[in-house]
Amino acid sequence: MNKILVLNGPNLNLLGTREPAVYGRDTLADVEKLCRDEGARQGVAIECRQSNHEGQLIDWIHEAGREFAAGSLLGVVFNAGAYTHTSIALHDAIRGAGVPVIELHISNVHAREPFRHHSYLSPAARGVMAGFGVAGYGLAIAGLVRISEGRA
Ligand code: CA2
To answer: How far is 73 from 54, CA to CA, in rounded Å?
Structure first.
């Protein structure tokens, strides 16, 4: 069975504990279950990881690149949190790893503060999902499967 990696970055471990108007009431554990359920529907295994550390996220993107090259990974759904707006290092990691990455945001970052409007990741990403709440994770998994089948 093929696999998709779902990566969550800084502060996403706080999901469901604060700011429900922006991010909803689901916890990270709820989101990870949603992802596994969508994976089961799509016939792909889902691996979920979260880190608050940029270097750790970079290492996981590199690992994903090796697994993609080996044919055991379809791609990555990546909510890089605030690193989206700051990290040239994550941009370089995605480009360097050569793995299809779907940049994901729970909120519509373009309807929020101006500092959230720029993404360093978008130019390196295969696709971008924003503003669908946590349902976006399932949509991004389905989209990545379509991409891997040449249907998107
Ligand atoms: O909308 C998204 O998914 C974001 O990637 C979330 C990031 C934010 O910096 C991006 O601009 C947009 C923040 C994640 C922090 O999540 C929290 C959840 C609950 C309570 C506090 C933070």
So the answer is: 22
